[in-house]
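User: Um, any thoughts?
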Amino acid sequence: MPKVTVRYWAAAKAAAQVAEEPYEADTLAGALAAVRTRHPGELTRVLERCSFLVDGDPVGTRAHETVRLAEGGTVEVLPPFAGG
């Protein structure tokens, strides 16, 4: 199972109370399931509004089950930002 780093930004970082943490998952769906297990409550609600980058590439509308994670990869959790 690949080891990846999940990085939280803005409201996600506040809800997780950490900037980043390691997970083992082979898909984005698996990583997010692990995040929800570790952080039930507010972060779970924030994740519903987030977009994600995997190794710098936007996930967009792809099904999270189809987004493969690589060993040493990074998942960025990006809540909606005000302004522009």
